[in-house]
Amino acid sequence: MMKLKAAFWPAAMVLAFVCIGAVKADPTTDANQSGKEKSRMERKFEEDVIKTDANDLKITFIGHGTLMFTYSDMVVHVDPWSELADYSKMPKACLILITHEHRDHLDAEAIKILRQKQTSVVLTRACAEKVPGGIVMKNGDVKTIDGLTIEAVPAYNIVHKRPNGQPFHPSGAGNGYVVTFGKTRVYVTGDTENIPEMKKLKKIDIAFLPMNLPYTMTPEMAADAARAFEPKILYPYHYGQTDPNTLVNLLKDSKNIEVRIRKMQ
Length: 265
Fold this sequence. Notes:
Distance between the termini: 26 Å
CATH architecture: 4-Layer Sandwich
Number of strands: 15
Strand order of the largest sheet: 1-15-14-13-12-11-10-9
CATH superfamily: Ribonuclease Z/Hydroxyacylglutathione hydrolase-like
Number of domains: 1
Helix content: 10-25%
Structural class: alpha/beta
Strand content: 25-35%
CATH topology: Metallo-beta-lactamase, Chain A
Shape: globular
Order of helices and strands: EHEEEEEHEHEEEEEEHEHE
CATH class: Alpha Beta
């Protein structure tokens, strides 16, 4: 039987904006902002620990499309975003992976805080225009960086498009990444749909699939993607207002896939 683990989301965060100028600031709004900032700084993140052939792999679920992996003494940040965490209090990065240039994935300020002299930043060509000194990977590239094998997988839309007919994420612009920790292969898809290239993936141990509509996948698309490469553990992530339990139900007969729900709205 497929194992199911679920966690429930608190109410969605509401972002407050203060107009600066002739309009006097509302002290209630200021207080709300201060409270939200404090909540962001004090937030406790869910964590899972996965046994690998060598060292434990700890996954920290920061939220949205943002993750942190800790493997031995290596810290890998994925799409760090300052809206979700106070990165001045987070572990510095050995490696940073950026999937694409949208603001909730490419946060130059968060990267600046996490980056050290020896930190490797892996990104796309469009991201490199905003973050200098990184390692550009294009779809299909495979590199060994800091002892980890990293494969850049295409990430794009086929169905979901803007009113002008352009995909939210054009083919060739973004990356997903397969990172191998020891012998454990972890696939972070980035913003994508269930694209044909996923059928070529082999031996994926852990996968993160997005369901943030209308920008990425429906639960049905995510289920189709999961069946294509059958990860041992599947985390729906970056799922916005989509109910991740819908994906659980769609995959209830997929005995080789364990679906785990974490707070990754």
